[in-house]
Amino acid sequence: MKKRRMVKFLMFxxxxxxxxxxxFWVVTGLWNWLVPPIFGWKAITFWQAAGLLVxxxxxxxxxxxxxxxxxxxxxxxxxxxxxxxPEEREKFRESLRGRGHGRCHGFEPAAERPAAEQPTA
Length: 121
Hints:
Layout lengths: L1 H38 L6 H15 L8 H15 L2 H13 L23
């Protein structure tokens, strides 16, 4: 099992480095194309662009999209779900099925799911 993970990592690492280099190259190019003519600032190097991108992601929002957004939505929906009566819950499920959503699993309390749908740890 550990060998398989190592092989996957060794295959993923060069691709990740290539993608990062491409992103840094794009940031360098965009900066050097836009900022000096518009603001009169100096052009930057590849490594300065990499540092600028990493710094901006750390300051403005981590590396995985909008932080906490999905958890906020899930928490709100769970609160609403818990306040519904069983009749309201069934009506809500039916309205989702009518729109082609099938079953809704993101906020339904675990105690109400059938045993086959319980997540395993």
